[in-house]
Amino acid sequence: MVYSLLSEARAAGKKLLAVLIDPDKARRENLLELAAHANKGEVDVFLWGGSLVNALQAEYFLKLLKDNAKSTPVILFPGSVNQLDEQADALFLLSLISGRNPDMLIGRHVQVAVKVKRMGLETIATGYMLIDGGRPTSVSYMSNTTPIPADKPPIAAATALAGEQLGMKMIYMDAGSGALNPVSGKVIKAVRREVDLPIVVGGGIRTAARAAESLTAGADMVVVGNALEKDVNWLPELAAAVRSVSATAAADNQGSNAQETIDNKLSV
Ligand SMILES: CC(C)=CCC/C(C)=C/CC/C(C)=C/CC/C(C)=C/COP(=O)(O)OP(=O)(O)O
Ligand SMILES: O=P(O)(O)OC[C@@H](O)CO
Ligand SMILES: [Mg+2]
């Protein structure tokens, strides 16, 4: 199960790096290059999808990726119902809870529910939240929804909590692909304080320091797309930054588990 990768990582304080691949921009050489990085342990998860996907060869490219990066899970991150593919390991079943468009909250899901079940795809119910990233994004335009203002952490926290109370398994906060400003540490911290679910953060992350900041603020996984499309050679530095935050967080986590064991022993 791919979800256990996320939930167990969260429980252990391990931080994850996801690389978003836009099927429309996929090219054989780029995919083979990304697969080579993944095989060196620099990618934990591939996300596959886009707001608008036109590529006729998307299935062929996904097969190429799967064949060449056998141990890295691929999760579908679909903007539309025609992006399902049973070669993937799981599906982020996004419900756009920051918006008020019923189609994005439940309508599209009804359209594909039976098909998804028959495909045998693992579904990960995801509370998907757009946070204003400083400019209109493809997702807000295509979904006809307004993002949560970036300077309103309490609204983001209440939205995420509502998602958790509704039974969602994960929160994905997205400033939108190519956002000017990634989701702020303040917003991530506010959501982290309120919910216990795995938190994924993406949109506009272009530096290793920014990825580290998001993880330190409480994200469990960061997603990078555009910046790696421009320059994949940046990936080793990014992966090292994620591993470094991960090592600190895992040590803190062990420390607090040990303290909990001591407290429990003292209280009996
Ligand atoms: C239920 C199914 C299978 C589909 C609908 C799923 C929903 C509700 C999606 C929410 C809205 C949406 C359009 C999400 C897309 C997320 C995504 C893949 C973003 C990737 O970035 P792009 O927006 O494609 O960025 P570029 O414009 O840079 O390519
Ligand atoms: O392409 P970038 O800006 O890295 O965004 C990744 C992803 O979170 C977008 O949905
Ligand atoms: Mg795209």
CATH architecture: Alpha-Beta Barrel
Assembly level: single chain
CATH topology: TIM Barrel
Overall structural class, as computed from helix and strand content, comes to alpha/beta
Strand numbers in spatial order across the main sheet: 1-2-3-4-5-6-7-8
Summarize the biggest pleated sheet.
Answer: 8 strands, parallel, barrel
State the separation between the terminal residues, measured CA to CA: 37 Å
Fraction of residues in helices? 40-55%
Structural domains: how many: 1
Question: What is the CATH superfamily classification?
Answer: FMN-linked oxidoreductases
Order of helices and strands: HEHEHEEHEHHEHEHEHH
Based on CA atoms alone, the radius of gyration comes out at: 18 Å
Bound molecules: geranylgeranyl diphosphate, SN-glycerol-1-phosphate, magnesium ion
Provide mean pLDDT, rounded: 96
* Amount of beta strand: 15-25%
Q: What's the CATH C level?
A: Alpha Beta
Shape: globular
